[in-house]
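subagent[fold] <- orchestrator: predict structure for attached chain, return tokens only, no commentary.
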Amino acid sequence: MKRPDVVIVGAGSAGCVTARRCAELGLKTLLLDRKPKKEVGQKVCGDEVSKSHFEATGIEYPADDEISSVIAGADVYPPNMKNELRVRGWSEFDGWTVNRLSWGQRLLQEAIDAGAKFLPNIHVGMPMVIGEQVTGVEYKDLSSGQEVIVKSKIVVDASGFAAVIRNKLESSLIENDIDKRDIALCYREILTLKMPLAEPEVARVFLGGEIAPQGYAWIFPKGVQEINAGVGITGGKGRGSPKSHFIKFKKKYPLLFGTELIDGKGGAVPVRRPLKSMVGHGVAFVGDAALQVNPIHGGGIGAGMRAGIILGEVVRGAIARRDLSATGLWSYNTRYLPNFGRRLASLEIFRRLLQGVSDEDMDFGFERRLLEAKDLMAANAGDGISLSMADKLKRVKRGAGKISLLMKLQKAAGLMKKMNKAYINYPDSPDKLEDWEETVLGIIESANFE
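subagent[fold] -> orchestrator:
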């Protein structure tokens, strides 16, 4: 494949889905990854993916050894671990924790079967650029030591949070300066429990500054007696390492007493809205490289899958029209961001609310149900928090003595609605992006709840 139509850098979930869709549509597709083929799929992650993503994309559900556990609910705990919110019966939440290696291998094989050419053990260096137009990449084959320049019509950066292509490009359309407060440093362990789980289909999430400053801890089942447990913290320097916080959490939470370690690793993930534009001239971004993650918990498997399907179709159209500019690729933005992207952007406001509430106020809010399970699910679905007049009066009665907390909740509800509206009105061309970005940044600046 001397002159592919599209080069995709990174064979994670988003990269493989994009490669598969491009190849299905008849494009000569080259997929590159630094890992050996047998290791594609391995990643530090919570491993959870919701069924709704498969229904939206048409990708077949995980099956057999790809599934670690079925997920059908969640318990969300405040700092004192009392009065938890029990989320049950919400189809949007139903899904699985997956075996990342088996799952990743399946997605890779589907891309190959569709016609994509896969090259493992590849270190991608610089993008090839003429003016602002990306025209290919240079890479080194780690097996042979050979250095290669490959030209293509479109380059897709699916390299994860490292964004090895995006971070080497300079353009007014492309964001590279990601605030440290919008990055979560994570540490997770795969553990065998001493006793079987009472509810192996229920995930657990733990909030609070003592457990995870500006973040959260999680326990996701991976079977009856195996779990994925970890801590993610944000906010830049001065908060300690996520591993140190997880060690404290293990000593505090009884379920984790006496567990046997299978694997422990750390990583980083973005926890904010997607990039303002997921395309440039001759280039597009997908998955973590496009910041397509849930800002509450950092999960990005489903978000990247959704984007990969759209991106493959947009790339095919741009090549057919012979318009490889950002304008030619712009429909990737307009198809993704006003729809699933606005859900992620709205959740950034909700994340900032949770981070701006003290442990004491959060305990009070959970005890008096100022925050309800339906609020979590409405926020996760991109509907914001809808507080009717009757609902406000009920919560005022329950929250007497903590009016400031209610005011923060109401403020968040209003800002989430504004964010939704802004994303629904995403610009239809690059020349309108600057004004739109100014509106979004104004909303983000207002989302201060401390």
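orchestrator: received. Logging for downstream: The first helix runs from residue 13 to 24. The chain has three domains: 6-43+100-176+272-329, 64-98+180-270, 344-446.
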